[in-house]
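Record type: monomer structure entry
Structure origin: computed from sequence
Chain ID: A
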Amino acid sequence: MLTFTIRRLLTAVPTLLFISLVIFLLLELAPGDPMAQVPLTVPPEVKQRMREALGLGEPVPVRFYKWLVQMFWVEPKVFIDWMTRDSWLLGWLPDTALYGGEQRVISWQTRSPVMDIIVQRLPQTLWVVGMAYVIGVLIALPIGIISAYRQYSVFDQVGTFVSMIGFSIPPFFSGVVVIVIFSVQLGWFPSIYDTTHRVVDWETFKVQISQMVMPVMVLALQTTAQISRFMRASMLDNLGQDYVRTARAKGMRERTVVLIHVLRNSMIPVVTVIALGVPSIFGGAIITEQIFKVNGIGQLFITALQANDLPMVLTVAFIFAFLIVLFNLIADVLYGVLDPRIRYD
């Protein structure tokens, strides 16, 4: 397993480099001008100097090389310095002082380091997206298991109906619906997420939960619909296998047969769906954050697109690609943990 993991990590490096090149070229070919929002009264020669200051006058290969150096060499040094200086985990170590003032990835829109802005926005996204995904998985797995064990029962029919709703309704529509029902009509929850809110006591914690309910509900609905269907189908495939009949014939308790033998084998394909669903839930958060005004990564990505902020768009898109590669690896490793027949070494 260790050899396989190391081999996959080494393979991920050229994969991520190729992905970053494709994203960079697509953004270069996309329409739009970073100077489009500059007032028309600005003289053309001033605009040209502004372009040169942003690095737009350099050839494409040079700009891509500079981004690679900044992203994979300069930013890691900044991160290591922060870990040894300010973090609670490694803050007791001596300050490494690796960063020597080199040029970092700078946002064209804010003229500040891109990674600093992402780190500021990340907690808001993790609060909403992380909570939605955990709740969605915890709800989906029992629904899929019970629906398969009690196939065609009332519970199964209701679960199928709810899953079809979750599959069919996109988040930009379901988000508006829950705002109209629970915020406008009933007045139970706020329609706008207050990103400046801080949890300091029980009352502020209740406020935080109330403003998270609707965006978490929208994102968790999609997660629950997808994973519960996969869980049900995988359980049905294994419930009819010979080893299940053999276990029952030996007198094993039904709970042991279903929750240990069948469930463990059924989780193998579901693990892929859960692992690969983590990056996709971040993609769904792009729309949800716009609807509920969550000042997170998704809204940052949309704002950067509208402003033609290519360094910001490139970095956020690369982070999404990195998450996909990472959770692919995690899914493959979990295969060997769940199924002893799978060996990579």
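Annotation 1: The chain has eleven helices and no strands.
Annotation 2: The CA atoms of residues 93 and 227 lie 43 Å apart.
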